[in-house]
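Team,

Forwarding the record for the chain on the shared tracking sheet. I've put the sequence and predicted structure together so nobody has to dig through attachments.
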Amino acid sequence: MKKLNLLKTRLKFFITSAIFFFSILKLGAQNLTAQQFVEDLEFLKKELPKRHKNLFAKISEEEFNQKIEQIAQKSKTLNNEIFEIELYKLIKEIGDEHTRIEPIYKTKFPINFDFFKEGIYVTKTDSLHSNLLYKKLNGVENKTTNEIIKDFRKIIKSDNQSYFEIYFQNFINNPRVLKGLKIIDTGAHANFILNQQKYLISSVQKHNFYEPFSKLLRYRNNDKYWYEIIDDGNIIYFNYQDCSEQDNKPFTVFNDELFRDIDKHQPEKIILDLRNNSGGNSAILKPFLDKLSENYMNKKGSLYVLIGKKTFSSALMNAVDLKRNFNSILVGEPTSGNVNHYGETRGFRLPNSKITVGYSTKYWENWKGYSGSLLPDIKIKYSIKNFQKNIDEAIEYVKNAR
């Protein structure tokens, strides 16, 4: 009898859970009504100016309100995807790299792209599509790559090319964005044109399908901070890819180990790689900077900082500090973050669409008079041919620098 009651209880729980799960899916698939779109817009119109540090730095209050009204007038013809696109367009006009919308995306196309000097190429995918790796993007459905770039410039601010490229990479495999821009008709699948051939790719749940195929040094370890001695002991390579504490090793402990190895091996050069670091807490790196300031490595020709498109927010602030106050040489690409910028992001959710709106609460003037991205002293143009061979041009430059 007890077993029968237990079975009934489990069955009841399963049925209840299934009903709840499918009701959530149904809710997520439903389009909002015109009234719900308008309510979200009114909430945004009221809350964003009130919460943002200085919302009207690049757009006037009148222009902001006009754009809200223009979207509201289309409310009867909107669907969820087009509503999101309209919000992206609005946020672009605000011109603040930390103010953004974050819709809930449940699927992606299992294919990642990156920009190289030869074009835009596939750099990651799943095992089912591994034959697509390193192929060049020529278009999606009936649109060429150049036409897609033109469409994306409507929703991504492009005063900073690195920022544009990062968001292009985030959007090009996003079914809802592509559908909202009318590049594709359905979010279920799309024809990607790669090396002038058409490949039909189905969208999948966005988790548990990406695997890095590259064996480049910068991708070999997922820890937030780690180091390795390379080039026959001549270089200590320190990869710092997240401005936050690692659970199993506080940064102060890691930092002590790093400098013990520097003292022991006496390398000629140190590389600090910030290319994969999009921010967090800039103060985490302070123990490293304090020790570095008094170390023999703090001299021209010994201290190299690698920056790139993903270097953003707190990581960018660390890079600026190293450029201004240390004897560093910056190597790589311009950063996606502007040197002086609004930041310290907070967020709120729109009541009906549940879209998260991130907004800035502070202005960071990191270098008075400096405009735009932090530029490298040595600019690197990465090649897909070298990427395929696991050759990192930035690290090779440091190895050969005299």
